[in-house]
Amino acid sequence: MDPVTKGDYPQNMHDYVGERLPKFSEEESKMLRGSYDFIGVNYYTTYYAQNVEDANYKTIGLMEDARVTWPGERNGIPIGPQAGSSWLYICPEGIRHLLNYIKDAYQNPTIYITENGVDDVNSSSLEEALNDHVREQYYKDIFDNVLESINDRGVDVKGFFAWSFSDDFEWGSGYSSRFGLYYIDYKDDLKRYAKNSVKWFKQFLHKDETKLINNM
């Protein structure tokens, strides 16, 4: 985010990446600063961060350049329950820390949460698949944390997009990972079934809409 807010990469990227880091001219930096309309945040999970001490670090790569490792557990204890995917730990408070950090570090930009959700694996029965209480609780906890950032820290969050409306093809996991609010039956003409979380989501949106109308 530094280039579009400050016109250049942060100093630690210059220190670690060195000559491999692209350089902006003075004119380009001026054009970049404040050039965004809003900041889009995709949030799914949180990890711990552990510094890598190695003055002679030569390996090149995303993780290596950052001089950090990202474990999902500490002292054998996961940071949160594991969802359907091995990389996704359920840690709703992480979004609050992230939003607060963006607000403090980048002069409180307008934020849209452009992706957020939790997955489960294929279930043995349709009834089991539709009973997605973990997803329902996940969204409740996410919204509680986002609201806390808005009310307590003044974070400028303007919108939220759930990932996803329906089960879909999830990268390397293919159709085995289900993020959808709606269940897709891949073996029966792609029929859609509302999971239990949809009922709560509808109630949540209706309540919010009613409050908005009453305040007008």
TrEMBL record:
It comes from the Eukaryota. Keywords: Hydrolase. Pfam families: Glyco_hydro_1. One of its GO terms (molecular function) is beta-glucosidase activity. One of its GO terms (biological process) is carbohydrate metabolic process. Gene3D superfamilies: Glycosidases. PANTHER family: BETA-GLUCOSIDASE, GLYCOSYL HYDROLASE. Belongs to the glycosyl hydrolase 1 family. This is GLYCOSYL HYDROLASE. It comes from Salix koriyanagi.
